[in-house]
Amino acid sequence: MFIKDFINKKDKVFVKFIFYYFKVLGTATISFNTESTKSRKSNEWKFTHSKSSIMYNIVLIIFVTTFSSFGFICASFQRQKNFENFEKVTDRAEDVINILSVTIIVMMFCFKYKNMAGIANKMSMIYQSLISSCPQTLYKSFTDNILLHIILIISPYIIIWSFVIVSNFINYPEFEIYNFTVFMNDIVITALLMQYSTVLILLKYFFKMFNVRLSFILEEQDNLCEIQYLNCSNRSKGKIKDLFHMRKLYASLYEVSQDVSSFYSGPMLLCIFKILVSATLSLYYVAKPIIIDSHNILNVDFIIRNSMFGLIYATALLILTTLVTQTARESVKTREITNRCIINFENKYIIKELSQFSSFLLQADVNFTVYGFFSLNQSLMTSMTASMTTYLVIILQFQQNN
Questions:
Q1: How many CB atoms lie within 10 A of CB 328?
Q2: Count H helices, E strands: the chain?
Q3: Which among 106, 99, 112 has a CA at the least distance from the CA of 26?
Q4: Buried b (16+ CB within 10 A) or exposed e, 185-195
Q5: What is the DSSP string of 81-135?
Q6: Is residue 3 predicted with pLDDT exceeding 80?
Q7: Per-residue pLDDT tens over the stretch 160-200
């Protein structure tokens, strides 16, 4: 949703597709308009909240709740072969969690429309500042990498979801209505993860562009001091202003990163809880025929179906947590560049400016969390894997005892 300002005109068809994909699934309650600028590289995009999108989200909530409830009732009264009472109960409990999670997440986007527009406008202004003095070749390289990275994170979703939807409607035609409601809810959840991942890609490349620009300023200053030591003080004044501007720009980057973390905390809390429940049950349906019902004929289609659902959740979380880790790592590089350059300079004014910047960087720790309870970096995957394994063992032991 925040990427229209960052891609060239030839790529806007793809960008619009992604934007309206998020809009259709209720995770983009903003609109945008473009304003011409004197910059040779891009137009400036202004984001505002969209009343029509909010109304659409309300209609979407009613539709999802009604249709999911109907699918829930149909599945409750439908006969399911080889399903025990425990599995029927857990399936219906999972359905309730899915319906509530999606409904609350879409409602959150309705209530937080101003925050979303504010984040989008901040990111647009930061990008304009970063490219204002960026060489055309470097600008083109970064925008191409952003687009390519977004395509790479979207492709697994498209491939896996296409396989899951087609195979389910072919192998389980009697559960068409129920499957549709399950897919509808899960696609909204994965759209949330896709959107968060897209925003993280932009932030990651913002930090990269910042580090490239900062390195260029410091290396250029170092060369000037070596070439003309006597005039270093006078020549450094412009560079000190540049460093002051970069410090303010980094403060804006840090602020928008914290805004993003805060904005997605609520939806991600529900999303992770839903994924933990669904992934654990998917693992159970894969493990049970092998461990408990080994004497029966394996239902390969059923095992593949649940394996693919598990793969969707694992892929989505792996992409998100990897991007969180990479973005945080790029912010750490800024600190490393600054500390390294303090040693190399002799100009006391530059050293003072860099020292102030370094002190700020020690306090400005870029991290993406869920209300500060836990981080969304790669340690989350380890924690969730351990939790799912524990719950799976408990459920299997309970089933064996019965």
A1: 21
A2: 10, 2
A3: 106
A4: bbbbbbbbbbb
A5: TT--HHHHHHHHHHHHHHHHHHHHHHHHHHHTHHHHHHHHHHHHHHHHHHHTT--
A6: no
A7: 878 777 777 777 766 677 777 888 888 899 999 999 999 99
Residue-wise burial string across 300-326, b where 16 or more C-beta atoms lie within 10 A, e elsewhere: eebbebbebbbbbbbbbbebbbbbbbb
Angle at CA 103, nearest 5°, toward 310 and 67? Answer: 85
- Token pair of 93, please? 């409990």
Of the CA atoms within 13 Å of residue 128, those in its CB half-sphere come to: 18
Cα gap 365→372, rounded to integer Å: 13
Could you tell me which residues are beta bridge partners of residue 49? 30
Provide the sign of the torsion angle of the four alpha carbons 17, 18, 19, 22, taken in this order.
Answer: positive
Amino acid sitting at position 5: D
Is residue 124 within 8 Å of 46, Cβ to Cβ?
yes
Q: How many residues does the chain have?
A: 402
